[in-house]
## 1
Amino acid sequence: MIPDQSAIAVDRLSKIYKGNPAVDGISFALPRGSITGLLGGNGAGKTTTIAMIMGLVMPSAGSVRVLGTDMARERHRVLHRMNFESPYVDMPMRLTVAQNLRVFGMLYGVAGLEERIRDLAGQLGLTEFLDRPTGKLSAGQKTRVSLAKSLINDPEVLLLDEPTASLDPDTADWVRGHLDTYRRRRGATILLASHNMTEVERLCERVIMMKCGRVVDDDTPARLLDRYGRQTMEDVFLDIARGRGEAREAAQ
Amino acid sequence: MTTQPIPYAAFSLRRIGAMVLRYWYLMRSSWPRLLELIYWPMVQMLMWGFLQSYVDQNASYFARAGGTLIGAVLLWDILFRGQLGFSVSFLEEMWARNMGNLMMSPLRPLEFVLALMTMSMVRLAIGMVPVTLVALWFFNFNLYALGFGLAAFFLNLILTSWAVGIVVSGLILRNGMGAEGLAWTIMFLLLPLTCVYYPVAILPGWLQTVAWLLPPTYVFEGMRAILIERSLRIDLMLMALALNAAYFIAAVIVFLRLLDSARRHGSLIQTGE
């Protein structure tokens, strides 16, 4: 049984599409204020897991609770306290940055919205772009706008799906730094799905490794490196993806 | 700075206002979108208006029934454009790949529907008011002279258009953009069945039964009654309103079921074809 005081509690969660399990009975609990990486290759079940945590996809079995609320039944009670960012979702391109942030701020019920927009724009280096159509920004600038949208309501729970995909190393590093600062200041819980091992090593205090819809390992980056006898998380990832971890365990 | 905790609101006019503002920003930023609202209703009205003028001069029945073609075109456009206004606003979210952001936000499904209904009215006003004024100027046809009848016609037509728009939006959410074509074509199924340009009596008996199950049929019959017999058929309007109330409630239930089905099948994160 997973404790209810967790920020996110996933209990025996499964999703089956036409007889094929995309997620297969996974369980984990994330304490409030923690930052956790969800790692796995393509088709491992990361995006489906995040979609079920957000309540966009109904589980076939099991449950998800966010801030104590059952996401399958009562997600609307908690959505204003969480937010997300994903490269697979866009902001409306014809709207200016300020218009987009205003619309989402209103949707999230943010008080003092214009001041909040100015603050966020200042923090994320968007002040000079506020009146520019979002579609006319560079990829890095668009990512910062999406990040501003995901922080507009000062969320207690932040779900990030590949937050630095398609960004140059400098912008990606800047985004990671901002996320880390935000979590420390707000005490927010962050779950981060990523392929980027540098990102995971730098940001995450815990890593959940997924393969074929299952959790195959779950520990701190340091312990995972130690357990697999590797120098980098990328090597650990490759061991797990190619089944070498299981072979090593069997040999031992 | 940490912002104040945001209280939970089961229903929020501010969230509806946010969506209306989003569509208003979009329309304001794009003159082709505004032009499209007026262009086709204007072309239709002019074409049918000239045809009406021609037959007025050559047939005694149409001379008595002055304005029925233009009236039918204008009322048909309220029905068609009302649904299109609803569906296009919905489709803007799919085209913009913004549905995930909305579905993950505190916006409730019924608030989304109310915002789309509001935008349908706004788009209809932008498109139809200039066209009705041109009809008055060109063909001396004053739609507003229908008075209370026009209000009853409008209410019934817009309710039908929203019911159809709601179901189509649910089908697109559930089945992806492969169902987009329905948004543009589904209303044309009603064109022959609701007897826009001819009396219900023209249809074969069994098809008349089908026609009387459709609220717009009562509106178009009511319009002909006003223009030809100079009588306002309240009975027809009340019957249409009763049918519309039933269809509207059914449409909302179908939409919510399709949304649930989309969540079960994972369609909300696969909004492509």
Note: DSSP finds ten helices and ten strands in chain A.
## 2
Amino acid sequence: MGDPRIPGRLQADLDGQLPPAGKAWVREHLSAHPEAAADQAERAALARRLRVDLAGMPVPALDADRRAAIWAAAAMPPPRIRRFRPWHGVLAAACLALAVGMLSLVRVDMPAPQWEESPPVRIATMVPDSRTEQTGRPGDAAFVGGIMDQRRAIEGLASAAPSPITTIDIPVVNEQSEDDSDRTAQEGREEAVAEADMGGMGAFMAIGAGGGGRNTLPRTKTAAKVDTRPSGGQPMAPPPVTTPPTTGESGRSRAAYTFDGTSSAQPAKPARPNTPENGVAVTGTRTRTMTAQGQVEKLNKDIGFDYEYDPRGPAVQPPLWQGVDIPRARNTELTHIAQVGRGVEFALNVRLADGEDDLSRQAGGKPADDRLDTDHRRLSESIRREMVPNLEVAGPSVPADLLPRLRTARTAGRQLVLQDGQAVERAPIPLDPADLGGLDAAAFTRRWGAVPMLPVAVRADQTFALNADTALVDQFERLLRAGTLPDPDLVRPEQFVNAMPADHPAPTGEPVALYAEAAPHPLIDDGRTLLVAVTAVTRAPTPGERRPMNLVVCLDASGSMTGDGLARAAAEIRGLLAAAKPEDRIGIVTFADRGRVLVAPGAATGDRVAALSAALARVEPQATTDVVDGLRLAYRLAADGAAPDRASLVLLLTDGATLAPALVDDAVAAVGAFRGRGIQLVAGVVGAEPAQPLAIQRLAERGDGRVVDLARSPLGLVPERLAALVADAKCQVVWNPDRVAQARLVGYREHRLKAEDFRNDAVDAAEIAADTRVTALFEIVPVEGGSGPFGTARVRYRDLREQRIVEQALPLGGTILARQPSPQLRLWAVAAATGEWLERGWWSNARAWDRNRLLAALVPNADPAPALAPGAHRLRAIITAAAPHLR
Amino acid sequence: MDRPAEAAEPAPRTDLVFADEPSDQDCLRRVMEGEPEAMDILVERYQADLLRTAAALLGEAAAAQDAVQDAFLRLCRERERLVRDPRPLGGWLATVVRNGCIDVLRARRPSHPVAEQPAPPAGEATEGEAVWLAVHGLPPLERAAVLLRYRDDLDYRAIAERLGKTVTHVGVILHGALERLRRDARLREVVHG
């Protein structure tokens, strides 16, 4: 009876449950197996007996008490909403964590536990084997390298950006020498130093080294698999002839891998003789240009680091290298340092004393081979414990203060220099922003995540959607007050500008009025950079002018809204209801485990408003939440009530916690499905702790709407300003090449448009509510001796009330240029610079923004010092609160 | 040897409702409209079947009653959802009861004393009592399968539905139960006699 199905089949036959074919099969089986037939007969007898003896067993019935309890439950009204229980929250948090973990798995293809356990930075070090004769130079060099800030690095890898690893300087072992696993321990070793004090978001990729080491140090322990190839990437070039190690050659050689297959600007380095006098980048090494997959695999094998990379690599040395000294200290060479996104990658060549196995000496005299037997994790720990202090003692190798200083370099855009074996930090050096290092604008943006300053001869226009949102600043500020420095992704410099109060008079005729002013840049004292501000102001609302609303409130009733959140949201809704007119149509949808219609949309008459208000009191939060279902339901109801003469709106009131990363795409898709129906999404953020601000922003932008931070401006929802006044608002400034040499738009990185899309009304742009001021700042460098107007600013939008496209132009004549920046322009300039400083991107480095410069610029140099404007107070609070995090 | 298909004859539907009776959905709607008596119809309709399954799984009448009561209470709570999103009520209740029983079994597994089996009647047990005790001593799943099959005469498909197993697996469970009973000393005479 080898087949596990046979018992079941025999039993089914016994019980008459087999079809005829099955019965025939059983008969055949039993005739072939007489012992089975005997057993079967016995079981059949038992079954008959069971039938007889069990038949009389009593069947219980529900007793009277229980039936009464059921009857009572049926008589009670069912609970509309399940009560929130604490463990629901725990469960939701666990699910969220799981989802986040899965997401990171998908994105990075890296085992999650290792990700979690990875210290923020690991430094891989290795030395060539001193006992291998072929190297000739015992202890010739070691490699220390690492990457900080995993998140940025991984983002760079996942996108089409080039690999952040541009140079790896490591010894390699030829294939033949790896055959004998016993020898491998002698031929290389691989150490990973975990340095835990590198701070929060930094982290890392292990760069292991030493071909032989991989047999004794299973690379799966630490290997990170990261696909750096952009989809649709170019085919890899064939490897240069000189690159593969000569087979048959035994022993070890060193090679620097320059990940630069196609560059003309940074040609592969020629082979060099193995002498220590060779240059800065690589001492005594051969250089290879890694281009082909085979070599990648070879490299992976050699260094025990499982990843792929973009063979195209960065085409040139990044501009940040300018001003970075790479000195040739006696024993330590910084062979590479570059800012990658918001991280710093670096490579150090550490030359150890001749004739000694330094690592084993530094590890307290333990034989190296013993350590190689330990697993990678323990090894890392032992290295951290033993080697780093000893390296400090060894002095000339790795400066003790290197790692914290690298962190500073990362966060503050500092330049890090090694001088005489010491890491020396230099104040930021402003770079020439016009020097793109040979990159074109698109490549520059990909590489640095920033839009460069461009010569007007290359591109004369700046075209962008006039996005007036400022909620991210509000949320950034709240998080900062709570004691954390929020993620740089939350920073959009234009929102900082627009968060500053402005007092331009609102128009009375057209819905939008344009203003412009210019002055020498208040923060850039180079005698030539000017700051131009173009401001669009929308008409102030008048109650009689307002179109009737078709409003569906989509209220988050998930567990995180318990208490304050739900109460605030209800207060907002009641405020709106109080201001509603009978011709408005209002309904409320809640979502928790699914979307529910709390009150179906209908005319906002007195009775209905009372009913809506009463219904709000009944809402109780639940643990589970399905924002997608809620949004769909709200949009369906809004679409049902849409009419040309009404402003159709979905008002999402949430604390954002429900927009788990896994749901965001679905939510955005749900909103996107109703595009073209003329429904605007207004996202009101309630709750003390802002959650998922970027997801909310994305959702609102998809829904042709905006985000309002109701925690900052409670009861900020008024019917007059709820619906947008104008839709698809775009701005285009075209510079006059006779007057302007270079120009850049500050911020609006997410809202840039192609020049030709300005007049393409099918292109989605931004919606602006009534009584709103939205400003764009431009840094320009005028043509020396040039004259004439600076250019022309235009806005184009759809007037939602009259459903017509309007285009307005404002000539930027020479008269807009003032000798001194106005207080308003100065405030805007500091706001924009603060944004860039907090963004910690390329422009923060290039402009060398720091706390002192920003604060100094905030207060004009006058005696007595003028009082700070309200916006300046706010900026000063943000700058001083953020500064300690950025030191 | 070719493998025949493992299909049993289609089982008679147990959740059919005759035309002159209110349907499950009607009953739920009537309950929602403030007529709790309609719940009695549902209790009458399903309690026997549910109690049989629960008692077979748990081996105790009181625990079975608790499980079935809990299922009906849950039905009361979720009637709105079940009206909005109709599904066969018999299957829903059976699943709820089964899950409730599994929870009970899990909770009692580590410490539940075997002695809670009904004590054998005083004096010499009759053959029928011996069978009953032996069946009662089976593991819950096997006991339930044996009772549903040989006491209630359900076919494999119906047993599979109630126990949340496949039809094939029911045969395997029953085979295992019968093998265990064959080895049971109390039944030796019954079997061989």
Note: Chain A touches chain B through 48 residues (CB under 8 Å).
## 3
Amino acid sequence: MNAQVAEAVAPEKKEFWRWQENTWVDESKDWRDAKIVTCGIDVGSVSSQAVIVCDGELYGYNSMRTGNNSPDSAKNALQGVMDKCGMKLEDITYVVGTGYGRVNVPFAHKAITEIACHARGANYMGGNKVRTILDMGGQDCKAIHCDEKGKVTNFLMNDKCAAGTGRGMEVISDLMQIPIGELGPRSFDVREEPEAVSSVCVVFAKSEALALLKAGYTKNMVIAAYCQAMAERVVSLLERIGVEEGFFITGGIAKNPGVVKRIERLLGIQAIDTQIDSQIAGALGAALFGYTLMQKQGAAKAA
Amino acid sequence: MIANYGYKDGSGDYYISIDTDRCIDCAAGRACLTACPKEMFEIITDDYDDEVACIKQANRRSLAYDCADCKPSGGYASLPCTTACTPGALKHSW
Amino acid sequence: MITAGIDMGSRSVKVVLLEQINVDSAPQLQYAVKKAHLMMPGELDADQAAERAFSEALAAAGVARDDVKSVFATGAGRKQVAFATEGVTEMTAGAKGAVYMYPNARTVVDVGAEEGRGIKTDAEGKAVDFAGNEKCAAGAGSFAEAMSRALQLTLAEFGEASLKSDRTIPMNAQCTVFAESEVVSLIHSSTPKEDIAKAVLDAVASRVCAMVRRVGIEGEVVLIGGMAHNPGFVKSLKGAMGVDAVSLPDLPEFVSALGCALIAAERQH
């Protein structure tokens, strides 16, 4: 019975919400030249990343969908980047785990919360002028305020409600039958900007979206209304911690201009641009924490 | 650091914020631990190695319900937790 | 004299036509329900749905529109009922209807498709206090409905299934969207569907109960709204509230419309 139910629950269909997995290493460098190689692994509810940092500089990363359990997801994420550059686990000096599965990263020396890691990662990616960080992950949303060193001064995390998370975006992508990567561009392909979907709750927003379609909205208009609602929600979270210039967005949603541009419009602030994949901020921060710790230990040994 | 625990959902904002700078050297003898009838507070070592109070993980997603007994809709003059926290580190958003 | 109460819920429209028969008798004997009519709006807009439901009710009762002295509306969509004389809140209507049916009722629990709330009422059926969790699907029937869909059961089967379980599995997810994934993983780990159903209904009941506690539980407790049809939910609610008995009207989804029609009648005097 249960097997039948499970099959029915996960029927074979096109998965519009699927996003790209990817691996990258800095070909201009050789990790063998580095004195200290540290690694950060971020096991999130939806995606997992492993980042390699050589002497405090980003060297490589791998980002993939989280599997059935945290230890395997951590291993697979790390294996992906190690394979790309011929590295072995024993070549890494220190491993820091973060993300919701951080305590289940098998080879981690330490676990640090994703709040602290995202702030640290954003400080590297966007520079020390970063003060306000928004992270929209698969199943949560974080608003962080930090100082010039990337130390957290105010934060909140919302992982209770799907509104304003990647999951909320996946729901609309599935409902509209449009690949998640196309939602952003499509949301701007409208004659005029519609009003935001009024329901915060994803369940109610879904019914509202269907009603809008019935009322003659095009799919693109519904997507625009939904992106605007998501932006409004996220901005209300940011306002609780106070928004300052030096605004940086991390997590999967940073790749959706439909939400990002609307957030910028509401705040009247441009987000700092980066060439680095926004999804690795947590793992990168974790690896950088590891590097600082190693430096301190080295200094302690030398003294 | 201001640590906000809780959430915002369709029905409203439910955050308990803890000002860790006021919490580190607690002058109230960690009175929050016993003041909360649901024992929602615990002491942790945070990411910057400070010993501070926080809301237990199990309660962070259900504050609207967990705190309901201390917040009758008719109004409650003072909350046990914020009253116990004499350094003033604790705040409710609703 | 005939009055009408229209409850524009999020899923369905409820109409009650009420006739005043004996002005001098006790309140309970003064009125008779001529017709209780429920309609699913389907593709219709809210204003069209109200009009259609009202016409259907009138036709079924054999009452001419001109004979209806006054129409009051309640529910989330009450403002869309163009022909209503006045709108009253769900709290006002629910308390009035519940106390009319159960004179000793002082605590009214109203759980519909999209809203759950606790109402404290006085002996006259006037709402004196209320607490609700609106605009979040987790505290109402739609949470149970979404989970029953994941289990491929109707809401009725879902309630029956939960009665067969005496295990308590906590649900971590508070959000309907996240809870769906949690239920799917419970299915994958071969958790019996009876246990999952109970876990889901327990979760809704505990949320509703927390809201009811905010107004205080006293006197007779009456459960109104569509979820009162679900015996599994009723059992979970009793457990969460720590009460032995909860009064269940025969037509729980019509209580607010009834309250509405009663208020319309009283205002005629």
Note: The longest strand of chain C covers residues 31-39.
